[in-house]
Amino acid sequence: MNNYVAVDVDGTLVTSNISFLFGKYLYKRKMLSLFSALWMSSLYFLHQAGLISLKTLHKTIFSSLFKGKSLQLFEQEAEELFSQATPFRPEVIKELKMRKEKGERIVLLSASPDFLVRIIAKILSVPEWYGTEYLVDAQGNFSDLGQIMTGEEKASVVKRECQEHLVAITDSKQDLPLVLLADEVLLVAPSYAFRRKVRHKGWKRLG
To answer: Which of 58, 85, 147, 170 has the fewest beta carbons closer than 10 A?
Structure first.
């Protein structure tokens, strides 16, 4: 049976969170004020510390930065950023290249906005990807939030789509609902707390 390879993006495929990288880029491009950049960064770190939910993080940033604005504008900026300077993890890129050559099915999963995930997938020629849905209206402007790609939602995607041997590649304890479904797990730069939590599982480390 062929493999279905579910790959986390933020911190796994890419060394950092692609939403955070995009925010820094918008600030450098003067599309984001210093106050807004600091405020959004503080929200991100509050989420990382477990003090606000992923849903709250997305709802707050979507309403303040994206709602009513052009998807095309942000896509152009994201393509400019990621086509030139995406800090991919070389060990993960090597692993995916090997698996693609074997004909394995690779799927990118990320809690970041879907238009950012789509660009990363395009760069790597990966046809299947899922991110948090940033919905647009008939005029091509951001209108609302759709499905937020939590760890639980990643697991739901896999349950719905995967009929193969499941390989999960991740760095994060947030993806536990996904990795607990997997037949094979590869951990990438996991935190000490995550390593301790799953040390009895015997999961392999990549790199």
So the answer is: 85
CB 178 within 8 A of CB 161: no
Which residues 6+ apart lie within 8 Å of 73 measured at CB? none
Read off the amino acid at residue 147.
Answer: Q
The pTM for the full model equals 0.92
pLDDT for 114-161, tens place per residue?
999 999 999 999 999 999 999 999 999 999 999 999 999 999 999 999
| Concatenated DSSP letters of 52-84 | S-HHHHHHHHIIIIITTSBHHHHHHHHHHHHHH
3-state class (DSSP) for residue 10: strand
**Per-residue pLDDT at 193 exceeds 70:** yes
Residue 18: which of 98, 71, 82 has the closest Cα?
82
Measured on CA atoms in the order 64, 66, 67, 70, is the torsion positive or negative? positive
Report pLDDT digits (tens) over 52-69.
999 999 999 999 999 999
The pLDDT score that the predictor gives to residue 201 is 77
Strand ordering across the sheet containing 165-170: 128-132, 105-113, 3-8, 165-170, 184-187, 204-205
What's CA 180's distance to the chain center, in Å?
A: 18
* β-strand partners of 197: none
From the CB of residue 71, how many other CB atoms can be counted at a distance below 10 Å?
A: 19
Contact yes or no for 37/199 (Cβ under 8 A): no
Give the chain's domains with CATH numbers. 3-205 (3.40.50.1000)
Residue 1 has a pLDDT of 58
